[in-house]
Amino acid sequence: MQVQKTLQHLSNRINTQPQGIAGLHAVYHFVLSGEEGGTYEVVFADNQADYTMDVTREAGCTLELSDKDFIKLVEGRLNPTVALVTGKLKISGQMGLSFKLQTILHHYQLQK
């Protein structure tokens, strides 16, 4: 439930202050391994963020990592560049969207 709580908290934060995603229309898939593994879809559209644990659309960018590393990434405790180099994170699709995601996560950083 930690992944879903993290996504819910992030979505709520974005939706109450959408300036950090203004004009963005993108679909991300997070393919997670671990206890809370599965594919989570995050959609940014119309200045809102929504997520589901289901694939409903084609993703512009897909990130593969463990559920624990996903939470660290969202909380700002995992450097995406280091995660890529060390193999903890794999990215496919539009690389520009992965950079945009990094900017969004930094803007809405969820600190523990």
Describe it.
It is built from four helices and five strands. With 112 residues, it is of the alpha+beta class. The longest helix has 15 residues, at 2-16. The two termini are 16 Å apart. The relative contact order is 0.20. The mean pLDDT is 94.
What is the count of helical runs?
4
Order of helices and strands: HEEEEHHEH
Per DSSP E runs of 2 or more residues, the count of β-strands stands at 5
Instruction: Indicate the proportion of strand residues.
Output: 25-35%
Large-scale geometry: globular
The structural class is alpha+beta
Biggest sheet strand line-up: 3-2-1-4-5
Estimated radius of gyration? 13 Å
- Uncertain spans: none
- How far is the N terminus from the C terminus? 16 Å
For the sheet with most strands, the description reads:
5 strands, mixed
**Rounded average pLDDT:** 94
Helix content: 25-40%
